[in-house]
User: What shape does this take?
Amino acid sequence: MIGSTQRGEAFFPVMGFVLITLVVAGFAPLAFARPGGPLAMPLLLHAHGAVFFCWYLLFIVQARLIGSGRIALHMRLGKLSVALAVAMVVLACLVIRFAYANPGFSIAGMSAAASTMFPITDIVNFVIVYSAALVLRRRAETHKRLMLMAGMLMIDPAVARVSIVLGAPVVFILLLELALFAAVIGYDIRTRRRPHWASLFGLALYIVAMVAKLTVAQQPWWETFVGALLT
Assistant: This one.
């Protein structure tokens, strides 16, 4: 994958560090707080967490490689990014099925079926944006923003857990996630004098997913659909 050839552009690796920090801050404390600690967690969840963590870590590496002008290595590692992305989607689907089968599964007090809307929209958005980033990999400014959007559109579970760790109200999740988008759009305006369409596309997908989580997830047909899909 080809990113910007502009050396020293620190914004994208910094955003990668922010995202991976949220992942660690959200999942690690709650994993160690579980009875038996992380070792008591199912192997599926360990694999899921490890693959997602590696994808975010690779995003940082890729951004830094572009910043240092190491384009050839960046392109070679792009194949690893694709492999991790495929594994992320497969594992996410398995985790959704695993969670749905858990009688206690609930997000924001919703039913199990309604709760699946959260991870399903996240993974669908990831697939849409990541695929677009691959197709447009030779358009550097677009590619790197779409890759960043892919990471941001999957960060909701981590941010939700950060809010739990901090004891923050639910609105904290929305505000923090919107702050991430604001940072990208603000960077666009500062460097390009206008938002890049890829940044706005990511934000639009986020808003659509949020509307679906708050409305479609509550519909009877969604429960029927999820039941048929996951059982």
The longest helix spans residues 71-100.
